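Title: [Solved] Lipoyl synthase 3D structure

Original question kept below for reference.
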Amino acid sequence: MALPALHAPRPEHRAEKPAWLRVRAPAGAAFEDTQSLVRRHGLNTVCEEAACPNIGECWSKRHATVMILGSVCTRACAFCNVATGRPDALDPHEPDRLAEAVGELGLAHVVITSVDRDDLPDGGAAQFARCIRRLRETAPATTVEVLTPDFRNKPGAVEAVADARPDVYNHNLETVPRLYADVRPGARYYGSLRLLERVKERDPGIFTKSGIMVGLGEEPAEVLQVMDDLRAAGVDFLTVGQYLRPTPTHHPVARHVTPDEFERYATVARAKGFLMVSATPLTRSSHHAGRDFEELRRRAATTAPP
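Solution (posted by the thread starter after getting help):
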């Protein structure tokens, strides 16, 4: 398969953003209702903190990705818009507030993510587990997806979350290994791969998921190698989306990858054996997560050995 050569990096300007990356401004009664509920329960969402371009669509459908463990991160990744600094105090009532919000929204599928909390002995793993277990008590029909940090190899952290049995365990690689020093300096590529592998070792029944951004300066061949590495780790679901620069101080966009290129990435990923692939310019880890989970479960059932 012929994939395009890398173009020389150049700064991104709003006027240069191609048509396929333009989205409508958030508006509408359903959007405002979701926003009000999030405020009322004192929840943080990655939709707002990370300036997700899909917030209008998702909130209008009453979908939100909840961010636990506060809104301040202990790391400063070059692609991320979440605030960095002294972290918030751990809130013991957070699992209850999350459960109340999920019940009020009537969610069939919920995605829970967090900032990095390198200051905590377990990286916040126990809080993830408490949130999952509280949701199992209050909303047993709701399926649960977690998008965790790497916990910086804190002993037992990954296992604690896996033992709470989320339906989907997502941890994003974000980019190719060569770019980690510039894009994700606080993390290690092979450490993240090993995390995903450990989830499958702990509980093969949990679906695993990971995602990368393109347009950061990676070569197409490097993206294909990441796919191979993820499949070797047993990952079920791959997401690939366009990197968008949150502010002029963040990592520049090297180029805007075209929809046709994304489709070629998706075709190759399916051929490599992923159960599910979402590869579009506006793909994000939690975009259409509930719908994708149902399809993931259906495909797993049809491909299972008799």
